[in-house]
What does this fold into?
Amino acid sequence: MFREEEVIVSAAVLIGDTIVTGVRHFDKIMQGQIDRMGLDRKGCKQGFVTNKMRFVDRDEAWEIAQMNKQLWWGQDRPPGKLFSEDLY
It folds into this structure.
């Protein structure tokens, strides 16, 4: 049976219980969504969404991306928090 691995697919922020996605954190697409929904980005949590439709924070996202060889800069970078620039 094929079992799909969990990978990072999009930058995202969590505002309350709402997940907003974009190519990069607070890019024009993401900011437009936030504005149209009338959300306040104060206190939001930055992270990513996976192909399993899960929001993960920057630390967990780093682990997922490293494990699945998604890091654009290579796998030898010291562990840390994932940024969209690390992926593309």
